[in-house]
């Protein structure tokens, strides 16, 4: 998420407040400083995981490096998608400008939702869809490398449900987040054009509306990109009969209290079902909640013993739940 404070959604303000960062960022913004959190947070997370891996050895170090590389793949996917979404927005605005000098507004207003969606996809949003699908492949590769540290002989090709997980991820991003906002904005613009509102005003308002919605969209997309990798991991763990998970990720100034109580600890499937991140999101696929940079790494009992990992207690689970922001 690109957190320039004058273009933030309510969800993003709440996230900053959850992390205890809102007051200091507002002070910096009021002093005239341009405030951006995303790239700094990503860099800190990658650097922290790199340092963690250097402090470890053997398979545990390999696992942390693999999770770092998965995070890098997710960050790359988020940034590529943001660029594609911006390009799509410009294409749509250009398309409406063309419609303003023709009879197309009335024709397009008669479209049903499916026809309008096809128009939007052909008008540039299809590029964002293609970019997202390509990014999914890179994230899956990173997940497979991380899983191979624990189960080197496991084959993801034997998991037919992966195609369904991929399709559901695309649907959750576009059908649930991107396209409804875009359809609403396009219909409003077409209505204005049909009422003879000057084209320059209509296109300006459309671009501004699409920009405003993009901040919230990117927050949702960032979360769902991470959920995709975690969903694949969870499916592979179930297929390999692994029921213990090491909570991996950065321990830095942006780490939620909920996550801080769990990083470096092994949680059983039963314990995980008792965890509550306080944000109404599934802990298995969302970890600490929106924009969380942590993930679950399935581990075998042999790996737990060989690496001398710390297994979570009931007190650890209760502590994490108590620290979750509600």
What ranges have pLDDT less than 50 throughout 5 or more consecutive residues? 1-9, 23-35
* Structural domains: how many: 1
Count of extended strands? 4
| Main sheet strand line-up | 3-1-2-4
Number of helices: 13
Assembly of the depicted chains: single chain
Secondary structure layout:
Blueprint: H1 10-18, H2 22-30, H3 38-55, H4 58-99, H5 104-109, H6 113-150, H7 161-194, H8 199-239, E1 244-248, H9 257-260, E2 265-268, H10 269-272, H11 283-286, E3 295-299, H12 301-306, E4 310-311, H13 314-323
Parallel strand pairs: 2-4
Antiparallel strand pairs: 1-2, 1-3
Helix pairs in contact: 3-4, 4-6, 4-8, 6-7, 6-8, 7-8
How would you summarize what this structure contains?
By secondary structure, the protein is mostly helical. The protein is 69% helix and 5% strand. The chain has helices at residues 10-18, 22-30, 38-55, 58-99, 104-109, 113-150, 161-194, 199-239, 257-260, 269-272, 283-286, 301-306, 314-323; strands spanning 244-248, 265-268, 295-299, 310-311.
What can you tell me about this protein's structure?
- The chain has 326 residues and is mainly alpha-helical.
- It has one domain (5-323).
- 69% of the residues lie in helices and 5% in strands.
- It contains 13 helices and 4 strands.
- It has helices spanning 10-18, 22-30, 38-55, 58-99, 104-109, 113-150, 161-194, 199-239, 257-260, 269-272, 283-286, 301-306, 314-323, and strands spanning 244-248, 265-268, 295-299, 310-311.
- A 4-stranded mixed β-sheet has the order 3-1-2-4.
- Helix 6 (113-150) packs antiparallel against helix 7 (161-194).
- Mean pLDDT is 86; it is low at 1-9 and 23-35.
């Amino acid at each position: 998420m690109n957190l320039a404070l004058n273009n933030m959604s309510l969800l993003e303000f709440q996230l900053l407040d959850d992390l205890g960062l809102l007051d200091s960022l507002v002070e910096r913004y009021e002093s005239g400083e341009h405030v951006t959190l995303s790239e700094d947070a990503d860099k800190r997370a990658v650097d922290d995981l790199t340092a963690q891996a250097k402090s470890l050895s053997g398979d545990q170090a390999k696992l942390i490096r693999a999770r770092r590389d998965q995070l890098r793949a997710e960050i790359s996917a988020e940034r590529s998608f943001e660029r594609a979404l911006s390009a799509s927005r410009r294409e749509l605005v250009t398309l409406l400008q063309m419609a303003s000098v023709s009879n197309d507004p009335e024709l397009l207003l008669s479209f049903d939702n499916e026809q309008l969606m096809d128009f939007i996809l052909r008008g540039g949003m299809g590029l964002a869809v293609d970019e997202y699908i390509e990014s999914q492949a890179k994230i899956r590769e990173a997940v497979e490398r991380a899983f191979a540290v624990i189960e080197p002989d496991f084959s993801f090709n034997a998991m037919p449900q992966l195609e369904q997980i991929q399709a559901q991820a695309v649907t959750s991003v576009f059908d649930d987040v991107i396209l409804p906002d875009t359809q609403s904005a396009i219909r409003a613009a077409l209505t204005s054009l049909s009422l003879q509102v000057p084209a320059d005003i209509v296109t300006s308002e459309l671009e501004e509306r699409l920009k405003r919605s993009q901040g919230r969209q990117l927050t949702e997309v960032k979360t769902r990109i991470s959920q995709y990798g975690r969903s694949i991991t969870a499916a592979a763990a179930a297929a390999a009969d692994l029921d213990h998970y090491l909570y991996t990720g950065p321990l830095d100034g942006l780490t939620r209290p909920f996550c801080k109580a769990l990083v470096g600890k092994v949680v059983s499937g039963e314990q995980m079902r008792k965890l509550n991140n306080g944000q109404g999101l599934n802990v298995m696929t969302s970890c600490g909640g929106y924009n969380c940079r942590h993930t679950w790494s399935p581990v075998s009992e042999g790996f737990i013993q060989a690496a001398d990992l710390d297994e979570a207690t009931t007190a650890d689970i209760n502590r994490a739940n108590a620290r979750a922001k509600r």
